[in-house]
Design brief:
By secondary structure, this protein is an alpha/beta fold. It contains 14 helices and 7 strands. It has a 7-stranded parallel sheet, sandwiched between helices. The longest helix has 28 residues. The protein starts with 7 loop residues before the first helix and ends with a helix.
């Protein structure tokens, strides 16, 4: 389907809501590419969003994020949920494309019409997600997914952005990888709602479990605040997956009981609006006098003729004049 006119948007959205995976794929591609019809697509999807449970999974490479995601999908399907998966892969510095390794690991669900799996390129975006991930989540919500799993790139200590996108954030650890120390260094302790000690059949799993429990005990919490759960699992053998699902359900119940679910989603919406606004602002900055003003200001700053703050003031003034 060629999507070149606004009148094509409602039809494509209806096809996605009817379970057409090709329509969902087309919508996410348009989102990733920042298509000019994106505002119309977002408007058509808006009435059908805001209901899905968004679960984020993060952790260092090799801890078993994709295997755990695969088994969580199986458990959620047993419960009758329609599931969407966004697996953010590292992008090629040459083509910007994703390796699609996560989709290869999730072939068990390839023929299930109640599951949609999409690998997305991070396209150099930091924080473990792609810039288009929030809007892709909205596409899956609009397409009728009850639960959306978002798996991050898995490249180290900076993957905290997923916490701002998810209702519940799972941080996966594995014995023998120094993850307990990394958690302290990276601040991951603050973003985890549930810790999963995966590969719990390996030597050192008990130590990792105790280390995480000890760090949680040291954290300061007010009365009624959520205490992160710690769950053991061996995802490759589907062991402990029901415990992970139970911990997720427990956290969701706490969010609802304490009014935190709405608060998290409002913060998520605010972050989306801010990102879109900044993107449009950058586009306007680049278009002022066909981009020549920014170049002239940069030249003046580099030559020491103008401070960067003064240059910024001039650029902002020019944008206000345009308005």
């Amino acid at each position: 389907m060629s999507l070149r006119r606004s009148r094509d948007v409602p039809e494509l959205v209806e096809q996605a809501r009817a379970g057409d995976h090709r329509a969902v794929a087309r919508l996410i591609t348009l989102v990733e590419n920042g298509d000019e019809l994106l505002p119309e697509i977002a408007a058509a999807l808006a009435p059908h969003t805001g209901h899905a449970q968004v679960i984020g999974l993060t952790g260092s490479p090799g801890v078993g994020k994709s295997t755990t995601t695969n088994e969580l999908v199986r458990e959620l399907r047993k419960q009758g949920h329609r599931v969407g998966v966004l697996a953010v892969d590292p992008s090629s510095p040459f083509t910007g494309g994703a390796i699609l390794g996560d989709r290869v690991r999730m072939q068990d669900h390839a023929t299930d019409p109640g599951v949609y799996i999409r690998s997305m390129s991070s396209r150099g975006h930091l924080g473990g997600l792609g810039a288009a991930t929030p809007q892709a989540v909205r596409v899956l919500e609009g397409a009728g997914c009850d639960v959306v799993l978002v798996e991050t790139v898995g490249v180290g200590q900076a993957e905290v952005e997923v916490a701002s996108l998810a209702d519940t954030t799972l941080v996966l650890l594995a014995p023998g990888m120094g993850d307990a120390i990394q958690a302290v260094k990276a601040g991951i302790l603050e973003i985890a709602d549930v810790f999963v000690v995966n590969k719990a059949d390996r030597d050192g799993a008990d130590n990792t479990y105790r280390d995480i429990q000890g760090m949680i005990a040291l954290g300061e919490r007010g009365p009624g605040e959520w205490r992160p759960q710690v769950v053991r699992a061996v995802a490759s053998r589907a062991e402990g997956i029901d415990d992970i699902a139970a911990a997720i359900d427990k956290h969701r119940a706490w969010l609802v009981e304490h009014g935190e679910l709405r608060g998290r989603r409002e913060k998520r919406a605010a972050a989306e609006v801010e990102a879109i606004t900044l993107g449009r602002l950058r586009a306007r900055m680049a278009s002022v006098r066909d981009g020549s003003m920014l170049r002239e200001l940069a030249t003046a700053v580099a030559a020491g003729e103008l401070s960067p703050y003064a240059a910024a003031d001039r650029l902002l003034a020019s944008l206000e004049t345009e308005t």
